[in-house]
Amino acid sequence: MSVASAIPRPILLLSALGAAGTVGPSWFQAVVRKGKAEFPCVMVKAMLDCGDSPGYALAALRQGVDYVRFDGVSADKIADIALQANAKLIRARPESLDLYHLELAGQQIDTACRTWLLGTN
After folding, report:
1. Which residues, in sequence order, are CB contacts of 43 under 8 Å at separation 6+?
2. What DSSP element (H or E) covers 46?
3. Which of 1, 33, 47, 117 suits a disulfide with 67, CB 3.0-4.6 Å?
């Protein structure tokens, strides 16, 4: 988010695949809140990936996650519940910059983020 603070455009913080089942919605929301507090000028949307688990998707909605990525068989029902909670269900995972794998490969995270945000990737 430090890179995004210098580039005036909204960003989407997208969790790792299936993160709702590993770190959980409460931890995810805490990380998002911390980032927003440290960088209040950055326009942030956050999406928690719930895979195909309706239980994880419902837990994310109860926790107040605004964007839930879910591709299970009950997506229409979960989408309706999301709408009632002023949230949105997204079925397809959006294209994203995988910081974890970049870091493992020894790449400069700041440079990769800047390139991604400026659309020169």
Report:
1. 9, 10, 11
2. strand 44-49
3. 47
